[in-house]
Amino acid sequence: MSTLPVYRWRLAPDGYATRRQLRAQGLRPGGQEVAATVERPRRRRGPLVAHLYRVDLAKPVRPMTPGRWAALAKANTARRICPSCRRDAGYVIPATLGTCVPCHDTT
Questions:
Q1: CA nearest neighbour of 37 among 7, 57, 13, 16
Q2: What pTM was computed for the model?
Q3: Tens digits of per-residue pLDDT, 31-81?
Q4: Is 47 helix (H, G, I), strand (E, B) or coil?
C-alpha cells in the first residue's frame, strides 16, 4: 500500500489538477486513481483536502448525445412538478419544502 503525496495549499507541482480544474480544461479523470492531495490548513478545524489527478492521464469530456439531452430535460421537468397538486410549478421545487409554495403555504 503506497501513500499519496500531500502538498500544501497552492504548492502542488505542475501536471496535477483537481476535478474542477480538469473540467475547465475540457478533461475528466477518466478512471485514474487519485495521484496526490492538497491540504489547506484551517484554524479551528481539520484541513480542507482536495484530490489531485494527473493531467497527462486525463481524457476528454464525453460529448452530450441527443439521448443524454433528452434524459436531462426529463429529469429537470420532474423536479418542477409538485407531488401534491401535480402541476408544473414553473421553478425547481426546493427539497426543503417538498411541494410548491402555494401547497406548502396551505398546510
A1: 7
A2: 0.70
A3: 999 999 999 999 999 999 999 999 999 999 999 999 999 999 999 999 999
A4: coil
